[in-house]
Design goal:
Elements: E1 2-7, H1 11-21, E2 27-31, E3 43-44, E4 53-54, H2 55-67, E5 71-75, E6 79-83, E7 92-96, E8 101-109, E9 113-115, E10 131-132, H3 135-138, E11 146-150, H4 154-164, E12 169-173, H5 183-190, E13 195-198, E14 201-208, E15 213-220, E16 225-230, E17 233-236, E18 240-242, E19 273-275, H6 287-306
Helix pairs in contact: 1-2, 1-6, 4-5
Length: 308
């Protein structure tokens, strides 16, 4: 059994493991895919003190750092159920798809999130080749170019406002006939000279030349007509889905959006169960933030343990 068991091996899980192991307590990490979302990206330019790196490189560095310590790493393990301690201060259990199960006095849930995809032709093919999901991360790579933002909710409209300050031109596409973002954001968006808004539009395909994105096809829903726009980047902003499906039957309290609710020390509604990173309600999903919240959760777990 462990003192601290982290579920998830992204930046948050790696930071948790290092902070816990440095306290000299029994530490484990079980992850479906060690490295997490970082593995799906190329250029990373905002991880403070690392001017520029690539996703797979950072993922390897995270793992190497964790391996400097006495940490049990269990890769390719997908958690399917959390069974909370039956008595206060008792051990929690996590069950895995493989049939294995692990017990620990504290847990740190760091299963991250995934961007909701449009699932249209070209989207997967041109991922990181013009198709992007994170304006804070990839916006500067499109300096001076024409890009699209898909989605007229708060995140889409915020992304369009943000990008309009960096790129040459932004076209925002919304499926419905009205944007869903807050009025103040819509007003700001409409005031920008280099932004077009196309409502009632269903994206049907991301076009490219084999190497990079060069356009987008959409259906004008009112007429059923298919139209095309030439552009060099597409930011998909139709939602971020937390990986909490496996917690649905557990007592861990989730927000309306399915994110794990934590207190300032990273503790969830279940004593001894902590959470960190993109899977939580902590705003702004970024590596540096995930790493920070992983450290918080590990220290929170340690504080909890010494009080038992
Ligand atoms: P994740 O990285 O999502 O890791 C989750 C971990 O949990 C993984 O190991 C996963 O396999 C595991 N897991 C999930 N479900 C289960 C389960 N049921 N059982 C066991 N394990 C499970 N941020 C930046 O700061 N800068 C950037 O440039 C940047 N670029 C990005 C580009 C792309 C394309 C994407 C997708 C994201 C980017 N981000 C960037 C965001 C950043 O990657 C995330 O904020 C960060 O990875 C979150 O870390 P995390 O540890 O909370 O979760």
């Amino acid at each position: 059994a462990f003192d601290v068991l982290t579920i998830g091996g992204g930046p948050a899980g790696a930071a948790t493991a290092i902070y816990a192991a440095r306290k000299g307590i029994r530490t484990g990490v079980a992850a479906e895919r060690f490295g997490g979302q970082v593995l799906d990206t190329m250029a990373i330019e905002n991880f403070i003190s690392v001017q520029e790196t690539e996703g797979p490189k950072l993922a390897t560095a995270l793992e190497e750092h964790v391996k400097q310590y006495d940490v049990d790493i269990m890769n390719l393990q997908r958690a399917v159920e959390l069974v909370p301690a039956s008595v206060p201060g008792g051990e929690h259990e996590v069950r895995f798809a493989s049939g294995a199960s692990l017990k620990s006095q504290t847990l740190v849930l760091a299963t991250g999130a995934r961007w909701r995809e449009m699932n249209v032709p070209g989207e997967a093919e041109y991922r990181n080749k013009g198709v992007a999901y994170c304006p804070h991360c990839d916006g500067p790579l499109f300096k001076g170019k024409h890009v699209a933002v898909i989605g007229g909710g708060n995140s889409g409209v915020e992304a369009a406002i943000d990008l309009a300050g960096i790129v040459a031109h932004v076209t925002l596409f919304e499926f419905m006939d009205e944007l869903r973002a807050d009025a103040v954001l819509q007003k700001k968006l409409e005031s920008l000279p280099n932004v077009d808004i196309i409502k009632g539009a269903r994206t049907t395909e991301i076009n490219g030349d084999g190497n990079r994105v060069n356009g987008l096809s959409y259906e004008e829903r009112a007429s059923g007509e298919i139209k095309q726009v030439a552009l060099e980047g597409v930011f998909v902003q139709i939602g971020l889905v937390p990986n909490t499906e496996w917690l649905k039957d557990s007592p861990v309290e989730l927000s309306e959006r399915g994110e794990i609710i934590t207190d300032a020390r990273g503790m969830t509604s279940v004593p001894g169960v902590f959470a960190a990173g993109d899977v939580t309600t902590v705003p702004y999903k970024q590596i540096v933030i995930a790493v920070g919240s992983g450290a918080t959760a590990a220290l929170g777990a340690f504080d909890y343990l010494i009080r038992q």
